[in-house]
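Database export, one record per block. Field names are fixed; values are copied verbatim from the stored entry.
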Amino acid sequence: MMTDPVADMLTRIRNGISARHAKVDIPASNLKTELARILQDEGYIQNYKRISDDKQGVLRVFLRRDAHGTDCILGLQRVSRPGCRVYVSRDGIPRVQGGLGINVISTSSGLMTGRQAVRRGVGGEILCNVW
């Protein structure tokens, strides 16, 4: 049993990037699917696909590189962990890498980026930072 599935997802993506893989397979869940949707909308991954099997399913994430072969994701950082949750109000949402990266926030309105949360005026739990 996994205690932190989001950290496992981020680690699998980080390992896939460092090993220069084109895709990464992750055990699927609704939270991970929404996180992959946000990463695709922000341009950090190329695509994702949910594949059903006899168990919980597999989330296949296709990693993105530019024309020169440089990865679009330079860093992934898990902020809020099961042992130490990090909650912020709408005024306390930090900027990532001086505004060049994003943070993913779990709010009462669902998962969204920090910029979207500031626009909507909601706070929540900071799941991770991506740059």
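Remark 1: The mean pLDDT is 96.
Remark 2: The longest strand covers residues 45-51.
End of record.
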